[in-house]
């Protein structure tokens, strides 16, 4: 097994996540797509840790997980607060600020 | 077996003070009774930030030797100390703006309880209550700590963690306005989703650079760049890292969040973001480009050149069409990000040019001026909170000459009129760019400045030469905190314009990177 398969898979996942952020309309789904991007980075880091023979990449994956967990807390809190007022989590409905 | 890294406690003191104050703030939230929390939190946040400012000044004036510490994860050098001092000082002023309680009849710019749905009966009940969500102080202090870490990060991973430590609290506090809560919450959602998107790009860039070099230490990346040359992974990684950082610095075309968030967030928070985040983001951009990629200039120079031009044009042109003052200042911040990038390019090969000192001076001058401008915005109010629509400012000069005069000073400084801080800053960055041969950029910058001057001056004309509207806004009587902020920022804006020598010298001496 060459490592490039893992890198390509990670790149595909990252792209799916990035496209998802741009086209999906529900804030929760957008957020899930961002998490997908972060996890594809984890896969990349772990793969590179193997290819470069250093352990740093694996440690960094842990850092990313912890930061992602903190981000989930903040993100869901913000999305919840807007949902309780508007009864909608669609990013298209939040359109008071423009131009 | 993991070796314990050397910790230079003296060099870390500014960071420890701010982050320590933030941690104690969280404990105060948990244990102190509600009625004492506000004064305690304000005092704590001020002690942390002012203490950090004093500590950085002591380190800088005490001749602290440049070096890396904490296992080379942090670089404490002249540039880091100058930027840390700037962030701590501007942060302390922002905390003062947060603490203002006499302007709004509702006692604070911040919501009484962020968990109560906007518009509910409980929300209306709490509208005029003394209660306030005091979590904003520890959150803001954490953000300041993250920014100070950001400019000293000598390692991409530390840079990423600092980026999140500064961003996450900002997402929250931008959704905590007491009035117009829907706008504020919308701003928070937009800022959060786009910010998280951008940090994912930064992170992917980090992973690719790690793959290309086997390390995320800036000095190692520099060495690997010397041998490898134009490695595809490295160039891709650099591009993604720059996208993540330019987003934070609100450089066009990554600025789309800026007007919405600046308008929706509570004005003190907008002031804080506009001043401090800019300093932190540019500190990190300078360090990344010159310490890690200083030997691969050909890869990023054209990119930065292009985004600088786009940013100046977008900021200046779209600023013309705005009718809301907060949005107008947001586009002005986009244009200023472009001017700052001119200074970044003025650093020249190997970081030898005068661009670093010029950019640092510009950051200080712009931070003080923009903080002051937003502080004036908090004063002019109507029944529904702050009156930020341009038409409401008509004839303000007749109604409140002092407010109009102070606002005019800040607007002139933002436009870059001589004898204000803005002029000195612009002059310094343009000169640095021209010295490095980037004169076409300086020409574009001058044209953009001229266009931008139009919309700043339009506000001044509106204030002095228009008839006041019949049911116009009132000018609130500022409490001690806001008065202090206005006095300091206005004095500094004038002083940096008339006698900039001392501070320019300081920036000149501080302009050095280790790594």
Describe the model.
The complex is a heterodimer of chains A (99) and B (515). By secondary structure, chain A is an all-alpha fold. Chain A is built from 3 helices and no strands. Chain A has helices at residues 3-23, 27-52, 56-86. In chain A, helix 1 runs antiparallel to helix 2 and helix 2 runs antiparallel to helix 3 (56-86). The longest helix of chain A is centred in the last third of the chain and has 31 residues, at 56-86. Chain A starts with a helix and ends in a 13-residue tail after the last helix. Chain B has one domain (9-510). Chain B has 20 helices and 5 strands. Chain B has helices spanning 9-31, 34-61, 78-98, 121-127, 136-150, 156-173, 181-213, 218-228, 232-248, 257-264, 267-292, 297-320, 325-345, 355-377, 396-399, 401-415, 421-435, 439-465, 480-498, 501-510; strands at residues 67-69, 74-76, 380-382, 385-386, 474-475. In chain B, helix 13 packs parallel to helix 17. Chains A and B meet through helix 1, helix 2 and helix 3 of A and helix 6, helix 7 and helix 10 of B.
Please report the total strand number of chain A as a whole number: 0
What shape does the CA trace of chain A take? elongated
What is the H-and-E element order of chain B?
HHEEHHHHHHHHHHHHEEHHHHEHH
State the oligomer: heterodimer
Give, in spatial order, the strands making up the sheet with the most strands of chain B.
Answer: 4-3-5
> Can you give the mean pLDDT of chain A?
88
Helix content of chain A: over 70%
Shape annotation of chain B? globular
Beta-strand percent range of chain A: under 5%
Q: Report the biggest beta sheet of chain B as strand number plus sense, adding barrel if it closes.
A: 3 strands, antiparallel
Name the biggest interface: A-B, 45 and 43 residues
